[in-house]
Amino acid sequence: MKGIMEQEKQVLLIFIQADSGVDGAASLDTASARLSLFSSLKDSALSNIIRRAQFAIPPLALMILSSQKVAGVSQTICDLRFEKLPLDKHWDMAGISVQTGAVRPAFELARALRSRGIKVVLGGPYVTIFPDQCRDHADALVIGEADDIWREVQEDLRSGALKSEYRVTSFPDLSIERTVGKSALDIKSYFTTNVVQTTRGCPYSCDFCNVHVMNGHRLRHRSIQDVLREVETFLKEDKRIFFFLDDTINADELYAEKLFTELVPFGISWVGQATTALGEKPRLLDAFARSGCGALLVGIESLADGSNHAHQKFHNPSSRQVECIKNIRKAAICVYGSFIYGLDEDTLDMPGKLEAFIEETGIDVPGINLLRPIPGTGVFDRLALEGRLLHSPDDHDAFRFSWGQEMLYKPLRIPLQEFIPSYTALTSRVFTVQNALKRAARAPRLRSAVLMFNLLYVHMYGMARKDLMRQLRELG
Ligand code: B12
Ligand code: SF4
């Protein structure tokens, strides 16, 4: 027995913290951040709160991988958002999830691990879209959704025959039952560990998004029975809130209505992402509310249909948004409204319209983003062709994730020198302590969460404004 245990291969699955963003905001200007000890202590304390309280949900991808058990292989998850690399232990292989905006830290980590003799396998969105850029940084690449192929990788590791590339040739069929377990997770570290995905793929084609590039346009469903069984099992280990991670939880309305109606007796509370079209579907809305839906993130992007259309977003016409959002809130579901200012038909009157819209609809948590051209998306390629990117399109690291902190492209209709002040003025009006208190007081539920989010945004957008104003000065 001891001999077998000694030969067991040890695999570490690593999730990387983004430099700045929902993982915790950090100023892009490290030099000036050093000027004030108090500010940097405050920023790091707040970043820790953001990381722990707001978004510390486990990476589902790594939960899925660690649930593919192979005899003779043991897997552990390390979440770098709040854990240190356990380098005091022996590891045979490390699997790193590479997001497009965090390529540099992923490659640096891979280099450090390989220099210690640990084999490195890279997978995730960036590897799937840009495998050639990753080859030199890994012993093996996994290209595509790794739900099934990960077993083969582990078997090859065990037999000492790791291949340099594993390519998934067709999207996994999600209707096949697969168990997702939490044994590789430190459950206590998270705000909740109840993360569930019911569908994958997106029928829409928004050009700033790469979900349809990675996961395809066809919506693939898990069986409702499989999801119910997972919810039941998860509840035994963790009674906290559920996050449904589907990009559009109402994409297939019939499926969603059946699923959430069947979830009513479970008595859970949950949050997810939906389109505002939900507000026009009373039966579906009712099923959401009765099954415990507390909040939904809705992607509104621009209030100008022309802008959304220029970016291939045709669902959710603006004329129906106000009514839809009001209906969702009337059903006692909070709305996180996600906007992008700076899309192609946006002009300088958009900030005023956005502000009035947020007021009129009563959106509980507004998020006003800058367009981030992500390499591998349609908008990235188009802006590159039009000469509107502010960095070389080959320098993927320059297109890192951040929190409304820097412009990476030139808006079409507004000169950068006017765009930046108009954005910072907008966020300074929308994200105030007074507005945070007002939004929390009128939220249909989850008032303390609404307050916390809004207060954190007062901090994060405040920091973002400093970075942006510095960029403006540098632009001259
Ligand atoms: C839930 C979620 C979050 C959560 C949890 C983070 C996480 N990634 O688990 C939170 C809220 C924290 C978050 C944060 C952010 N997110 Co997010 N998030 C999502 C969302 C909605 C679901 C992710 C998920 O669990 N998918 C389900 C799993 C099963 O799919 P998957 O992660 O792709 O994994 C599969 C394969 O890629 C592969 N794989 C993945 N990792 C690995 C590793 C190895 C070793 C192997 C072999 C295979 C492999 O196998 C998996 C199983 O098939 C996606 C959208 C989406 N549909 O994916 C956006 C998405 C991943 N997020 C995105 C962004 C931009 C962010 C932020 C930068 C936002 C910000 N500005 O701060 C941060 C970055 C956080 C970070 N540290 O990377 C983008 C990423 C774009 C990209 N990478 O190209 C996405 C794609 C949405 C979008 N189109 O804009 N996010
Ligand atoms: S932004 Fe949302 S709706 Fe648009 S393609 Fe991406 S996942 Fe689909």
Fold and architecture overview:
The protein has 19 helices and 14 strands. By secondary structure, the protein is α/β, with parallel strands linked by helices. It folds into two domains: 2-167, Cobalamin-binding domain (Rossmann fold); 192-475, tm_1862 like domain (pyruvate-formate lyase- activating enzyme), CATH 3.80.30. The strands form three sheets. A six-stranded parallel β-sheet has the order 2-1-3-4-5-6, sandwiched between helices.
Secondary-structure blueprint:
Elements: H1 2-7, E1 9-15, H2 30-33, H3 37-54, H4 60-66, E2 73-79, E3 93-97, H5 103-115, E4 119-123, H6 125-129, H7 131-134, E5 140-143, H8 149-158, E6 165-167, E7 194-196, E8 199-200, H9 211-215, E9 220-221, H10 224-237, E10 242-244, H11 253-263, E11 270-274, H12 282-290, E12 293-301, H13 305-310, H14 318-330, E13 334-341, H15 350-361, E14 365-370, H16 378-385, H17 416-430, H18 433-442, H19 447-475
Bound molecules: cobalamin (B12) and iron/sulfur cluster (SF4).
Cobalamin is lined by residues 16-18, 21-23, 55, 57, 59-61, 64-65, 95-97, 99-102, 121, 123-125, 128, 142, 145-147, 150, 197, 209-211, 245, 247, 374, 401.
